[in-house]
Amino acid sequence: xxxxxxxxxxxxxxxxxxxxxxxxxxxxxxxxxxxxxxxxxxxxxxxxxxxxxxxxxxxxxxxxxxxxxxxxxxxxxxxxxxxxxxxxxxxxxxxxxxxxxxxxxxxxxxxxxxxxxxxxxxxxxxxxxxxxxxxxxxxxxxxxxxxxxxxxxxxxxxxxxxxxxxxxxxxxxxxxxxxxxxxxxxxxxxxxxxxxxxxxxxxxxxxxxxxxxxxxxxxxxxxxxxxxxxxxxxxxxxxxxxxx
Length: 244
What we know:
By secondary structure, the chain is of the alpha+beta class. The protein is built from 2 helices and 14 strands. The strands form 3 sheets. Strands 1, 2, 3, 4, 5, 6 and 7 form a 7-stranded mixed beta sheet that branches. Strands 8-9-12-11 form a 4-stranded antiparallel beta sheet. Strands 10-13-14 form a 3-stranded antiparallel beta sheet, with no helix packed on it.
């Protein structure tokens, strides 16, 4: 009886050891497969990411002032790219800046309509370009009107009063003007000659009893401005000739 029981014990123990061995082998192989798969997946994914990774190129640019604006010929434009770039130009003029943001004042913009040709170099070395416009180029008028011709000039002497008394004074300008013109004597008294300023001309017409006399100093005061508000003032002092 004892021998039979001992025999069964060793049989059961052997069976348990066999089962544990099988389980260990199955689990061990499964883990190795998982590790291998994980390693392979990680290696493959990492390798692929390294191969494919790179800075994306810029595909568009926003310009300020925006297309359709009226700007002067020396306007500075701000450029904002959708991706960083390493260099940029506007109509061939190099822009300054870095990454997304650049500025440029392109040369050669003339009165009328113009289009901006923006070019750039992407971080991967590839080029990009975009046309932006149209713009209206209009430089503001900052130049004051000037007298091109006149009946008298400042400092004239020996001026014959007779033709002026008959025909008056006339002064021509290089552009249309508005304003005033008057004739005064040496003491500054207004002679009240009839004045007219219109177009590109200012005139004074003699008034009876206030004609120019010989050997007398007179002053013509001119105060005009052009359509942009640029003003010109002139004080022309002259002396009439002696009476013959």
